[in-house]
């Protein structure tokens, strides 16, 4: 009988361990779902299916070197309870360059004719609706923009909005009389 070799701390494989952890979590979710369905059926209750539920987050490093965490999806936190909305919040990246701001939003499954983009001051509002998907996001822009310069493009489920920054005046000397 072959004996198992004891693992050394140097034999640690984070990806293998992560895959095992994800597998265990999925098995636990499946078991909870199975138990809930059984309870609903035994209680004579009607089994309703809701969803899809979408929740995620992205982490980026801001210009000051600090992490910026942004949540997306259709589940929001309200105190200790989740609030589920029909509208999903798309994943959005805001890229600021010298003279422009580029906003990129992932919104698969909608037609470009069903997308509405509005600029209101320093806020970009993105809305879209298809037969079975709704998106809504208010994006705070990092600088004032020229609303008339806005251009939007939608391709392969990705919306890209480019806005020119308002040029700051270099100032003007006022002669005192």
Automatic annotation (TrEMBL):
Q: A biological process (GO) annotation for this entry?
A: response to heat
Coiled-coil annotation: which residues?
15-42
Domain of life, per UniProt, equals Archaea
The alphabetical list of record keywords is: Coiled coil, Stress response
Q: Where is the SHSP domain?
A: 82-177
Family statement: Belongs to the small heat shock protein (HSP20) family.
Classification from the root reads: Archaea, Thermoproteota, Thermoprotei, Sulfolobales, Sulfolobaceae
How is this protein named in the record? Heat-shock protein Hsp20
Q: What are the CS domain coordinates in residue numbering?
A: 87-177
**InterPro entries in the cross-refs:** A-crystallin/Hsp20_dom, CS_dom, HSP20-like_chaperone, HSP21-like
Q: Per its UniProt record, what NCBIfam families does this chain match?
A: Hsp20
Q: Does the keyword Coiled coil apply?
A: yes
What organism does the record attribute this protein to? Candidatus Aramenus sulfurataquae
């Amino acid at each position: 009988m072959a004996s198992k070799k004891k693992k050394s701390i140097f034999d640690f494989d984070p990806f293998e361990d992560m895959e095992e952890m994800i597998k265990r979590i999925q098995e636990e979710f499946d078991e909870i779902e199975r138990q809930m369905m059984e309870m609903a059926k035994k209680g004579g209750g009607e089994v309703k299916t809701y969803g899809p539920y979408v929740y995620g987050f992205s982490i980026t490093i801001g210009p000051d070197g600090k992490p910026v965490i942004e949540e997306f999806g259709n589940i929001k936190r309200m105190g200790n309870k989740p609030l589920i909305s029909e509208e999903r919040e798309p994943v959005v990246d805001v890229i600021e360059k010298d003279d422009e701001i580029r906003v990129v939003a992932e919104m698969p499954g909608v037609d470009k004719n069903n997308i509405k983009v509005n600029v209101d001051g320093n806020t970009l509002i993105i809305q879209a609706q298809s037969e079975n998907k709704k998106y809504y996001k208010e994006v705070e822009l990092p600088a004032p923009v020229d609303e008339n310069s806005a251009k939007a493009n939608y391709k392969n489920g990705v919306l890209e909005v480019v806005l020119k920054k308002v040029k700051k005046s270099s100032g003007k000397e006022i002669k005192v009389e």
